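Subject line: Sequence and fold of a protein, written as structure tokens
Enclosed: The protein record, placed directly beneath this head.
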Amino acid sequence: MKMLKPLPPPKPGSRAPSSNPRNFEGVYTSETMPQFFNNSLPLTPAAQERQARDRQRMAEGKPTGGLAAICRPQPTFALGSDLFPGEVTQNDHQVIFLNEEHRTRLNVYLDREHPKGLAPSYFGDSVGRWEGDTLVIDTIGFNGRDDKISEKAHVIMRVRKIDNGQRLEIITTTEDPLIYTRPITDTAYSRWNPDVQMLEFQCEENLEGAMEGLDVSE
């Protein structure tokens, strides 16, 4: 059983990250997380209404459960968190960002364009290219089942190593006319943490606990 407590920092003398600025492989924990639905974001009237409704339910003691409460996949634009790690694996054709929490993943294809007739999905379709030592990721094709992103969303992520490879900087720009009145940009940082191991995440085994007291209607 995994206890929910902050992950430890890297130990002194831990294995160093690759010196190749284009090699992101390894395990990371997030220092910052993207901010969704906060008061400063330029939400559309429909998104503002949904936010107000959710806050009213919270005030009434009826918090709303999102996709996480029913063990559904969630789109993610961060690598790891303070409680759960993330990992990057890659080759010449693909870079894969994996998160332990909710088993989220971002498969970034380096050798193709977005396919025609793309079937919508929770994580969308991601293609990437290198601009110098920065990986530029273009993602479309979301199914719109998450309340933070719609099927009209177009997301650009710019990922690069900083601090001698000890951290990843992830700059995410989201254009979503159903949620935001203009594109928004958010920056998150993930720290290299080779002492942490990715574990299984099986929220289905505790579904009742996850949904207790929540309104999980879709």
User: Anything to note?
Assistant: Confidence is low (pLDDT under 50) at residues 207-218. The beta strands are 26-30, 86-90, 94-99, 105-109, 125-131, 134-140, 154-162, 167-175, 184-192.
